[in-house]
Amino acid sequence: MKDRAFPFAAGDPALPVAEYAELREKEPVARVTLPTGHRGWLVTRHEDVRAVCGDPRFSKELATAPDAPRLLPIARGSKSIVNLDPPAHTRLRRLVSAGFSRRRTEALRPRVTEIADELVSAMVAGGAPADAVAALALPLPITVICEMLGVPVADQERFRAWSDRLLTVPGPGEDAAPIAEAGMNLAVYLAGLIADKREHPGDDLLTTLVSAYEEGDRLSEEELITFGMTLLVAGYHTTTSAIAHSLLGLLSLPERYAELVARPELTERAVEELLRHSQIATGFGALRIATEDVELAGVRIPAGDPVIPLFTSANRDEKVFPDAATLDLSREDNPHLAFGAGAHYCLGAQLARVELQVLLERLVRSAPGLRLDDPDGEIEWLTATAFPRPLRLHVAW
């Protein structure tokens, strides 16, 4: 079994990494060398990825422990809910889950619809061509998450600028100080916002979290700030990337967009298929550390080794998704892992679904002739971020 350097050589970011199909077939648990020089494992099949995510012997917390090697572009000792193991993760999830119930999320649909209507109408009124990333993919999620948190409209632009900087991945030799400064500014701002919500409660998620109380327990100030910053990642950056990838995937196949225009009742299935089909995550965010020797798919993973369950590879597993390379908007059985699996299944999954569903509904109604302005042109990608996406996506209609 030979070591491979991970991540693999970059190809088209819109397409699956070529090596993943070979690994699924021949070496589903593969030894790799990470950019830090550490040796680890890639897990590529759907069944095995789910197994890793559901097995407490694979720890997320150890990957960011204070004394851990810096395997991820994230601070050591991170107390974010996405990097904690039970029981700390279980406690935080219990306290915040009320803010993400299906009922509460669906109650946001009318407001999300208003925002999407305004954005689509403004794009169409501005005339073609337009940049769908700037017009739709960026402003919809940040507006929704700011309104959810209760961030005043006047503060939303700097809130967005800080969060954009925070998710930048510095290149070799680049100064990381601006990233740390953005994180500090964001934390200070959230601390002030939390203090204001204590004095002046509102009908927003941050107020709900400030007042969350169960079995004598509540969120600390540090936990509130950290969770607010985590929401920016889950509620803004990942959704922006999902929208951009989905629009590119849909418009790269004009017949698929025409199908959705003709059959808008397919929207919910289409969103699930676009999430499955898109190449949104790089894999590093799912990294775990084996806490003991574990056998997986006939391979012994030693205690202490990093393990990366690759959701984008699992979502192309032909054993689970027949004709997996095809974007099939009417696909019925679609157990994709775009939102992860196990205890760390994304809290905001339903909100992301609502945003994508509403946006597609508005687009097919207002711009039935939507298309890529230059379908043969090269797409420029934003790669210096935790969630790569098209930098711009010029469209016409």
Please characterize this protein's 3D structure:
The longest helix is centred in the middle third of the chain and has 31 residues, at 221-251. Strands 1-2-3-11-8-4 form a 6-stranded mixed beta sheet. Strands 5-15-12 form a 3-stranded antiparallel beta sheet. A two-stranded antiparallel ribbon has the order 6-7. α1 links the parallel β1 (4-5) and β2. The protein has one domain (4-396): Cytochrome P450 (Cytochrome p450, Orthogonal Bundle), CATH 1.10.630.10. The protein is globular. It is α+β, with helices and mostly antiparallel strands and 397 residues long. α11 crosses α13 (267-277) and α11 runs parallel beside α15 (349-366). It has helices at residues 18-26, 46-54, 88-96, 102-107, 109-126, 132-137, 139-149, 156-166, 177-199, 205-210, 221-251, 254-262, 267-277, 311-314, 349-366; strands at residues 4-5, 29-33, 39-43, 58-59, 130-131, 213-214, 217-218, 288-290, 294-296, 299-301, 306-309, 371-372, 381-382, 389-390, 394-396.
Strand order of the largest sheet: 1-2-3-11-8-4
Low-confidence stretches: none
What's the shape? globular
- Annotated CATH topology: Cytochrome p450
CATH architecture: Orthogonal Bundle
* CATH homologous superfamily designation: Cytochrome P450
Compute the average pLDDT: 89
Strand content: 5-15%
Number of helices: 15
Tell me the radius of gyration.
21 Å
Give the C-level CATH assignment. Answer: Mainly Alpha
Percent of residues in helices:
40-55%
Reading the helices and strands in chain order gives EHEEHEHHHEHHHHHEEHHHEEEEHHEEEE
Kindly, what is the distance between the CA atoms of the first and last residues, rounded to a whole number of angstroms?
51 Å
